[in-house]
Amino acid sequence: MQSGSVPERAAPTGKPVTTIAHNTSATSVYISWKPPPPDTILGEFLGYRITYRTRDRHPDDVKEIYIRDSTVESHEIHNLETYTQYLVSIQVFNPEGLGPPTTVLVMTDEGVPTKPRNLSVLEITSTTIRISWLEPEKRNGVIHGYRVYYVYQNQTLLHLPILKNDAAQNSVFYYTLTNLKPFTDYRIIVTAFTLKYDGEPSEVSLRTDVGGPSPPKVLNLTCHSLDTLFFSWRIPRVYHSSIDFYIVNYRNLEYDDTHEIRISANASIVETSMVIPNLTTNSAYEVKVRGATVSTVNPKKVVLGTYCEPIKIALRANCEQYQPPPLRHNPYVDQELVILAGIVIGCFGLLLIILAIVLWRKCFHASYHEAGDQRPSERTDHKPTVQSNGWKTSCDSNGIVQTSIPSEEYINGQQQAMIDRFHR
User: Fold this and answer.
1) Are the CB atoms for 90 and 18 separated by under 8 Å?
2) What whole-number distance in Å separates Cα of residue 147 and Cα of residue 203?
3) CA–CA gap between residue 27 and residue 80 (Å, rounded)
4) pTM surpassing 0.70?
5) In Å, what is the CA distance from 118 to each residue of 14, 111, 353?
6) Using one digit for the tens of pLDDT, what is the confidence trace for 47-72?
7) What are the TM regions of this chain, as residue ranges (predicted)?
8) CB < 8 Å & 24+ apart, contacts of 262-271
9) Is the separation of the CB atoms in 110 and 197 below 8 Å?
10) Do domains 17-107 and 216-319 have the same CATH topology?
11) Helical spans, DSSP H, in 19-105
């Protein structure tokens, strides 16, 4: 053997040539190649060795695959990590060992992000919920933003997508849901999303806080004595959970300062009344009332309702002898009474129409029907007549029956009456 010649038995010196390297899914990649020149195999061509590892791990932390078939020129690697860069190397081998490797960098595809972490409720009001969360533990792609869903009464609604850069503050994401319904159960769902996938959901269930009651309906405001007023009202039409307080506000119209009286309430009591004391005689007052409910989120907080329309009244001597001034328009009207009154009026009107039709048919229709049986030559322009007990009767234009009594019967009737008086 000449000096410098390659031994007949040695490891290969040629490298495979990579032709394709790309991902086929979030957990797999595909690689294809061409074998090195035959004269670089230097012995029996047994096949290929493929090794792979993530780019950011130690070089010794590798996995290998042996393909013991020299005709194979491609392979798909599975069970990889999602959206991760891999260094893939391929080399030929013969009985003496391995040839030099060819290495390519390939990345698995995006996958489904895991659920956002630490979804928390920060603040609850009657119409808003403020929440926060952290980025998913495994993004499995480029997170472009988050979707916030909320579910109530079997309806699922989606708020506009939240872009990542708009919501993050020191790696914490915040969002406030608005225009919610008071004292309503909600289920809130948050998911991250990439360009391809929506991630796994994080969710929390809660109930919004109570809202303020609607205005009470004022029933009476009258002068009770020289220095007191009698005030009564009905429970608000709309309230949530309960009515816990009423707040009566009154003021002397000559002054700017106002006074409040808080009284305990019970939703089972429909009408409430009280006497407002220690007032000034010969003064005009303005009085109004509203309901209040204790917060279900914070027991130390009272949610105030809307005041009714203020009512003005004059307090003077012997005021109980005077008719109290009419109350202003109430905040709401008893719609049930209005509907009932409309039904009664409608039924009464229908009854009058039916009665008018019956009278018309009885008076006019019968007359014209009998007149229609005459021969055409016997018809005249006189009003229709009908014979009753031999007397001629007719109806005028108002439907009143007019009767003419034969003179013989009238005379005989007069004579009979005189005879009867004589026998008495």
Assistant:
1) yes
2) 12
3) 4
4) no
5) 54, 21, 73
6) 999 999 999 887 788 999 999 999 99
7) 337-360
8) 265/291, 267/235, 267/239, 267/242, 267/243, 269/235, 270/234, 270/235, 271/219, 271/232, 271/233, 271/234, 271/235
9) yes
10) yes
11) none
